[in-house]
Amino acid sequence: MIHATGVAEVTDGTFDDEVLTAPLPVLVEFTADWCGPCRQLAPVLSRIAGTESGRIKVVQIDVDHNPAVAGRYAVLSMPTLLVFKDGEPVRSMIGARPERRLRQELEEALAGA
Fold this sequence. Notes:
By secondary structure, the chain is α/β, with parallel strands linked by helices. It is built from 4 helices and 5 strands. Strands 1-3-2-4-5 form a 5-stranded mixed beta sheet. Strand 4 and strand 5 (88-94) form a beta hairpin. It is globular and about 30 Å long. The model has no long low-confidence stretch (mean pLDDT 93).
């Protein structure tokens, strides 16, 4: 399912196929309906999903409806952002952040730093 933000939603059932076997690196936002900082981050993720679509896939997963994946990666705070490359998490970021900072952190993660 794709939200109005242009960010695809994954579930416990689709996570492995959509994230772990994706040909591109994947930025996963662990979110929840009640999370204010998650709502602040939504337009930033939407812009990144649009401008970086050939370099990175952006998805979100609702932790309240999909507790298995959140548990697997020990996600306790929302929003938590994980960058996956080749099926493995390579970067973890907790909390909302400005777009410029997130783009910088993504560049570092994608470069393997």
